[in-house]
Write a sequence for this structure.
């Protein structure tokens, strides 16, 4: 496993290796993976161009340009960012509802978009499915869209569960609202705790590999009780120098401008499959 790549940063390399060895000894049967979607399982950039997220539309660009710098501003506290994130996601959802999006157009819209999963995604998704390792995708994006992205890439396996913002269509198939509680970057802890039923299904899996690109993603495993090991991987895609210190202090492993799944793939492949049991 090449943790010596220059794009891999760690505050405590020894502790990371110890955690990985402990998880490996326990085997794949005690592992679960919890991951963000946009800019974690999908690429941040490709050929120097920013890749769209599940919210992308021209009308969203202005909101992104206003609120994204706030989301990643290392000088602002989470408390300061919270109301602004709620404001951002609420406006995005209102814009989508105003566009009267049709359910039967979603597949085509995704097909025509340039959304891309990270290099090595197929190995990642297929390996987890093959060894019955549950994958919980926790996204502040649009659940219907990310499901379609995964489906069109032929990796929507039965081991996947998704917590996200889902569209609510009226009887004619037109978007009229969003279902349930709004999930944004910084309230994933509440989202995790409110989906305790799913988390109970994986309570016999005390080892967690957590993947995210935001400090808010670190709370995604808060609903998992009795954990033995949690290994966190943070994708640092943007504003590297400003955010590097906070990421190194927060995530176990930080991947700098790495558009691949190489490190997560190396870790999950290192887990012993023989203890694996169906979920």
């Amino acid at each position: 496993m090449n943790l010596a790549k220059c794009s891999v940063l760690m505050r405590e390399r020894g502790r990371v290796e110890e955690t990985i060895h402990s998880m490996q000894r326990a085997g794949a049967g005690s592992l679960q993976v919890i991951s963000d979607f946009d800019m974690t399982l999908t690429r941040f950039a490709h050929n120097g161009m920013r890749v769209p997220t599940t919210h992308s539309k021209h009308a969203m660009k202005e909101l992104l340009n206003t609120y994204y710098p706030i989301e990643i501003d290392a000088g602002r506290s989470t408390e300061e960012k919270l109301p602004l994130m709620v404001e951002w996601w609420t406006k995005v959802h209102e814009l989508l509802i105003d566009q009267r999006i049709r359910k039967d157009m979603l597949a085509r819209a995704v097909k025509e978009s340039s959304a891309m999963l990270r290099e090595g995604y197929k190995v990642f998704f297929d390996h987890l499915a093959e060894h019955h390792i549950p994958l919980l995708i926790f996204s502040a994006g649009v659940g219907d869209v990310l499901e379609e992205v995964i489906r069109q890439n032929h990796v929507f396996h039965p081991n996947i569960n998704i917590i996200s913002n889902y569209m609510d269509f009226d009887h004619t198939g037109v978007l009229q609202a969003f279902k349930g509680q709004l999930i944004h970057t910084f309230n994933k802890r509440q989202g995790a705790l409110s989906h305790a039923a799913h988390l109970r299904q994986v309570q016999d899996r005390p080892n967690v590999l957590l993947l995210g690109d935001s400090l808010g993603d670190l709370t995604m495993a808060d609903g998992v009780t009795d954990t033995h090991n949690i290994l966190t991987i943070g994708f640092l895609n943007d504003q590297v120098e400003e955010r590097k210190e906070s990421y190194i202090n927060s995530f176990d492993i930080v991947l700098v401008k790495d558009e691949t799944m190489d490190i997560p793939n190396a870790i999950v492949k290192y887990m012993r499959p023989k203890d694996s049991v169906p979920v």
